[in-house]
Design the sequence.
């Protein structure tokens, strides 16, 4: 009997937890849902995204909301776990009744949520880089960041203008590096670039001189291209200097943060990389349509949070602006109409570049959205 | 007769999983419940090894992930029917557990923990780096689960499947524990030397229970993959292994229902604490610490002990 009583008590407790009513929603508010990797390995992307969304939703509200309706933001932290992201996407749609989703910090969490989103028919603007998110085009899915393929294309185009055709690719075996590696291999031939060495390291490797030595000794190599983010590329850059390799070193947009320069120190001098306009906001020519947007965002963000603005914050800002503009053009939150309006986005100037979407392009950025940047004396110098 | 957990406890479990959906207002609740029941099944299997066998495994997420990837690849790439893929994956995982189990289970304490940890990490690394096969860190899409032309689709269908699964798992576990095998296992847990002296093939039983729990993990992994429709190597990460062990320990080791309670609680808690936002991790940590300090035997056994004490001193 004792056992039975306990089973019963435990069961009631569990049921009590399960029966729990969803949030009550006022009919007038526009509900924006977001699942972000605020904690976990991708937290340095998710955290600025969350802060940005919160700040600019508040800004929208003080400016009178969208079409006179107040905006409500619901954010959940998926910790970078795709299965949690899928569950939170379901929760936002089914339980919180959001009108649109802006979120998905990593490619993995975004991809996991896509199934839920497509089934439910809710517009979703992803903040992750992977090209799989919008290729093939999915009816309800859009994204704001540049893809790794665009970064590779930008780098290869720059190499070509400098007469480089044989390169060594050194990439990280993490999600970002791996995907960048695959995309680089795919588009290299289109730009007349031959990859003569293909080396891989782990994000936590304390030393990559072995891989770099192999890359340097590849026959005919003219430059080295490193795809990774976090501290890996900083170690690559330092080892590169220590080995005294004189070939040009290219990095991906994954290192476009001041943290990289701090980590790599003097070794970072001369490194070239593709970066969004936000990184070099102050140096953009006055004629650049992006200039007012990025300088204003940078100034506002840095004044509010006392930290340097990152491109990830910019992705969240762009996602929110795109959503707000589409809802306002649609004249309401009817999901199908908002989706159609998102697809019709044209000439939106954001932190990532100029966005013009179409039925076949749910990202809408052109390669011109990237600028070639060189690191000189510990700072970014625009060089295209 | 109802006093025995094999009948009474099981009846309560059946009643609970049958009645619980009455309190589900929408599909999201079904989704969370399915995850909770999957974790419960996984933990019931792991509890056999940890709770009854007294062995530790910090690599169980690896077996879970292997089952998931096995099903994903066999159905997606080789066109096998999902049920056949599930069974084949479980067979392969069982064989793998058998092969690595024999040398590993000779180790004790920290060394055993480290060896199983190593296996889990190796599986995780292989899934992550062999991107030509597994899709790499970006993950892999998985087809729907269907048996004999019937496709399991929608959260309700998955809920009932998961409910049947957890009841079967609990029933199997309860029977195993009360069988000669179960008694031998508990003898091993109590004292390996003692068990050997009275003629128990300790290594044999340890390997057996290791294989059984790995197969449980693989089956749940396969179903999880089909239900989610998308998997990444992180389902086999070290943290995931720790998470399932925590569920077993929190619920109460050597208690099949404890494992179920622990798994359900630890799956639901983060969902309810999500509204705490920044304080989520702190509150969760506080709850776990409190439980471990005041109920070191785990939730269910401690509660049972408390009640027994109350009864004796009215």
Sequence:
């Amino acid at each position: 009997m004792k056992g039975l009583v306990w089973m019963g008590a435990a069961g009631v407790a569990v049921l009590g937890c399960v029966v729990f009513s969803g949030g009550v929603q006022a009919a007038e508010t526009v509900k924006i849902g977001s699942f972000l990797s605020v904690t976990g390995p991708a937290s340095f992307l998710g955290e600025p995204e969350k802060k940005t969304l919160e700040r600019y939703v508040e800004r929208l509200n003080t400016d009178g909301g969208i079409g006179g309706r107040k905006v409500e933001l619901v954010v959940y932290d998926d910790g970078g776990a795709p299965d949690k992201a899928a569950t939170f996407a379901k929760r936002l749609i089914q339980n919180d009744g959001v009108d649109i989703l802006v979120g998905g910090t990593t490619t993995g969490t975004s991809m996991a949520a896509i199934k839920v989103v497509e089934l439910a028919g809710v517009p979703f603007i992803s903040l992750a880089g992977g090209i799989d998110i919008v290729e093939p085009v999915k009816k309800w899915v859009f994204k704001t960041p540049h893809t790794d393929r665009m970064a590779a294309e930008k780098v290869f185009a720059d190499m070509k203008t400098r007469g480089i055709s044989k390169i060594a690719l050194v990439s990280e075996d993490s999600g970002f590096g791996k995907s960048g590696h695959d995309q680089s291999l795919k588009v290299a031939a289109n730009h007349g670039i031959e990859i003569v060495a293909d080396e891989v390291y782990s994000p936590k490797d304390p030393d990559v001189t072995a891989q770099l030595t192999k890359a340097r000794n590849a026959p005919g190599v003219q430059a080295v291209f490193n795809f990774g983010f976090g501290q890996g590329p900083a170690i690559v850059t330092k080892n590169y200097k220590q080995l005294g390799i004189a070939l040009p070193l290219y990095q991906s947009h994954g290192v476009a943060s001041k943290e990289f320069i701090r980590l790599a120190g003097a070794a970072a001098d001369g490194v070239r990389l593709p970066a969004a306009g936000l990184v070099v906001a102050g140096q953009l020519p006055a004629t650049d349509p992006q200039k007012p947007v990025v300088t204003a965002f940078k100034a506002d963000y840095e004044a509010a949070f006392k930290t340097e603005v990152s491109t990830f914050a910019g992705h969240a800002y762009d996602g929110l602006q795109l959503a707000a503009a589409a809802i306002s053009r649609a004249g309401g939150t009817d999901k199908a109409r908002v989706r159609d309006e998102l697809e019709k986005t044209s000439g939106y100037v954001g932190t990532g570049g100029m966005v013009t979407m179409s039925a076949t392009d749910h990202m809408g950025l052109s390669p011109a959205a990237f600028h070639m940047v060189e690191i000189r004396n510990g700072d970014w110098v625009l060089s295209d | 007769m109802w006093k025995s957990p094999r009948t009474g406890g099981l009846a309560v479990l059946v009643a609970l999983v049958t009645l619980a959906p009455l309190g589900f207002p929408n599909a999201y609740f079904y989704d969370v419940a399915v995850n909770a029941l999957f974790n419960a099944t996984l933990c019931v299997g792991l509890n056999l090894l940890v709770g009854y066998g007294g062995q530790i495994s910090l690599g169980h997420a690896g077996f879970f992930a292997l089952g998931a990837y096995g099903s994903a690849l066999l159905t997606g790439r080789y066109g096998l029917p999902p049920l056949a893929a599930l069974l084949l994956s479980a067979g392969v995982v069982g064989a793998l557990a058998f092969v690595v189990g024999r040398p590993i289970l000779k180790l004790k304490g920290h060394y055993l923990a480290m060896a199983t940890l190593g296996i889990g990490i190796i599986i995780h690394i292989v899934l992550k780096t062999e991107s030509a096969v597994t899709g790499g860190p970006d993950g892999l899409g998985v087809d729907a689960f269907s048996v004999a032309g019937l496709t399991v689709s929608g959260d309700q269908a998955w809920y009932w499947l998961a409910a049947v699964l957890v009841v079967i798992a609990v029933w199997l576990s309860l029977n195993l524990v009360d069988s000669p095998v179960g008694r031998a296992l508990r003898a091993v847990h109590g004292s390996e030397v003692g068990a050997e002296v009275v003629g128990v093939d300790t290594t044999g039983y340890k390997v057996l229970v290791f294989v059984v729990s790995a197969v449980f993990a693989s089956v749940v992994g396969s179903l999880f993959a089909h239900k989610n429709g998308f998997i990444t190597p992180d389902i086999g990460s070290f943290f995931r292994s720790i998470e399932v062990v925590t569920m077993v320990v929190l619920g109460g080791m050597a208690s099949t229902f404890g494992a179920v309670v622990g798994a359900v609680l630890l799956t639901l808690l983060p969902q309810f604490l999500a509204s705490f936002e920044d304080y989520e991790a702190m509150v969760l940590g506080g709850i776990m610490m409190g439980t471990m300090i005041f109920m070191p035997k785990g939730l269910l056994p401690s509660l049972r002990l408390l009640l027994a004490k109350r009864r004796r001193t009215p």
